Amino acid sequence: MQVRSCGSLSRSLERRHNGPGKKDARKKCNFFLWADPPYTDRAREVVEALKAKLRAKDEELQRATIELRFVEKKMLVFNEECVSLRKKNDELSGLVHKEKDGRSGSKMKKLLLIIVIVWFVVRFFK
């Protein structure tokens, strides 16, 4: 039993339907408090089983979070390695292009030299 704000004891009413709760309209203070019926043994078993499942899911979530952090760290290391390899690749491709340009330049020089020699020979021996 609860003591109302007006000082009198409240009656215990049970809800027997799904409608709105009943109020004790005979008193002026309109005090109202739901009283839950006692749980059955089966209800306690179900609640405990659900709590155990919730704890198991929480532990699974914690393990997954730890694993995710580990994978994120590995991805950062992998990303750093990729950046490093890209820089090395760019450096090597730059060297290869310089070498190709140098070769093609020397080929052009050789070709120009041959043309000049042929021109000189043709002009000199006419």
From TrEMBL:
Domain of life: Eukaryota
Region of interest (Disordered), residue spans: 1-25
Compositionally skewed regions (Basic and acidic residues) per UniProt: 12-23
Keyword terms, alphabetized: Coiled coil, Membrane, Transmembrane, Transmembrane helix
Stretches assigned to coiled coil: 40-74
Biased composition (Polar residues): 1-11
Bilayer-spanning residue ranges: 108-125
Name this polypeptide is given: GRF-type domain-containing protein
